[in-house]
Write a structure and sequence with these properties.
140 residues; mainly alpha; Non-ribosomal Peptide Synthetase Peptidyl Carrier Protein, Chain A; two-stranded antiparallel ribbon; 2 strands
């Protein structure tokens, strides 16, 4: 009786949600979130201080900005936040590139079976007849 109350799309959704690709994607998202924290720490705690030595007193790249006027409520362009975000993206992209490249090199390639040699083409009938004639002449 419970089966009749269940909409038809529920079974279809179960098949979709339990496919290997969806589960793999979910694991990738979770690991990506954790990986993002590592990269953010790398940028914030290691790379940004090194860059701050070049830019002066700024302790954080995201603090770099300038006001459009001297007024108290003037709009502020925070170009440091943009630079920080681009830097984060480049480091994440580069790290993922190298990780995928390493995984592809480490992946064991399946041994492909050697291709079978092509079967010889059947001998044409006229050649067979010529061979018979040749053999008959040799035997005389």
């Amino acid at each position: 009786m419970m089966e009749k109350l269940k909409p038809a799309w529920v079974d279809e959704f179960k098949k979709f949600a339990l496919k290997g690709n969806v589960v793999d994607m979910a694991i990738g998202v979770i690991i990506g979130g954790a990986f993002s924290k590592i990269v953010t720490s790398l940028v914030k705690d290691i790379i940004t201080p090194a860059i701050s030595m070049l830019t002066g007193d700024t302790k954080n790249l995201a603090e770099l900005s300038f006001a459009l006027s001297d007024a108290k409520d003037a709009p502020v362009i925070k170009y440091g936040v943009f630079c920080q975000t681009v830097l984060d993206f480049l480091i994440i992209a580069l790290t993922i590139f190298w990780a995928v490249r390493l995984i592809c090199k480490l992946r064991v390639k399946k041994a492909e079976p050697a291709p079978e040699p092509p079967a010889p083409a059947p001998t044409p009938e006229d050649i067979l007849l010529l061979r018979e004639i040749r053999d008959a002449l040799k035997n005389k």
